[in-house]
Amino acid sequence: MTASDERKNILILGANGFIGSTLCAHLLAKTQHEVYAVDLATHKLAPCLKHPRFHFYERDLLIHHEDIHYLVKKCDIILPLVAIATPELYVTKPLSVFELDFEANLKVIRWCAEYDKRVIFPSTSEVYGMATDEAFAEHTTNFILGPVDKQRWIYSCCKQLMDRLIYAYGFEKNLRYTLFRPFNFIGAKLDDIRNDAGSRIVTQFLHNALHRQPLKLVDGGFNRRCFTYINDGIDCLLRIIENKNACADKEIFNIGNPNENYSVAELAKILKEVLHEFDTKLADAVKIETVSADDYYGKGYQDIARRVPSVKAAKEKLGWEPKTSLREALRRILNYHFNGVDPDAILLKNS
Ligand code: UDP
Q1: In principle, which of 10, 206, 274, 324 could form an S-S bond with 330, CB 3.0–4.6 Å?
Q2: Tens digit of each residue's pLDDT (9 = 90 or more) over 306-341
Q3: Predicted confidence (pLDDT) per residue in 151-176, tens digit
Q4: How close is the Cα of 201 to the center of ligand 1, in Å?
Q5: What DSSP line would sit under 257-324, residue for residue?
Q6: Is the CB of residue 302 below 6 angstroms from any atom belonging to ligand 1?
Q7: Pick the CATH number of 3-350 from 3.40.50.720, 3.90.1150.10, 3.30.530.20, 3.30.1380.20
Q8: Which atom of ligand 1 is nearest to the CA of 219?
């Protein structure tokens, strides 16, 4: 048996989130690890709940410090995934972003350092801000953020300081860490499709289409994003967790799909086309209109024109590459919302 085959206790804080819930399902289906999951609710975790290696704790990171402290001590690998990661909330609730994304997570990182735990921490593609490099690289791209009254940057800034702090713990105290930076992960469980406003782009557009509301292109929809299907992202995280020959120790990895680089306007068009495959009438009724960023988000917003990852590090060190096109990802998302096909449930059923 190699070190990577050993059964470990994995703690996932924020397990009912988009990344957390999918990761739990894949860990249970594809590995022998015990999964300790913490969150406020379980609706995205339905396929995992009865699994014998799944242990759920309904706890709040902001309140139940003793219980979380105990779980960090008990487990081998810690993934603190609790965070607000929605641009609308960076603008309207900047203090909550700081309290949760920075303060609450800082406690967890300190416990990881104290008890010599391996930590896999979600940084973000937002740390690069408005960088102008063709492709953003982990060790060479400079971070460019806007002024203080543009509150959008509080998330990027909190995550950047967490990155620097974790790096410093690695440097001074030998904390075993891996930082990963998701680039616009998309999937069926991204945001709650019932929310009227404030979701990330794919869920927001889909919500609007389903409710016969226009898709709104902020400032004309010229800004570009690279869309990464959640299962590709999870595949990369499983390689990081496996950590063959310590290949992920003290490393930073962009996780994104540089090949699937589209403007928001192009995304709206492609979504309409894929919707056609599921409901012709609904797709024909989709209207697309432009809105100013000020009207949509308010004065505290500033947009990011382009955001392309270099995934060289993930390819060379983890042997990982993204596989899924935007069109295919949208098909799977629509298949979930129209036909109730939950890929996590199917995966667990077949495992
Ligand atoms: N956006 C848009 N219409 C919407 C929601 C978002 O045009 O209804 C734009 C937003 O201004 C940004 C892009 O879509 O340029 C992606 O936004 P998202 O909220 O998904 O997150 P981001 O990639 O900025 O972190």
Answers
A1: 274
A2: 999 999 999 999 999 999 999 999 999 999 999 999
A3: 999 999 999 999 999 999 999 999 99
A4: 5
A5: -TT-EEEHHHHHHHHHHHHHHH-HHHHHH--EEEE-HHHHH-TT----S---B--HHHHHHH------
A6: no
A7: 3.40.50.720
A8: 7
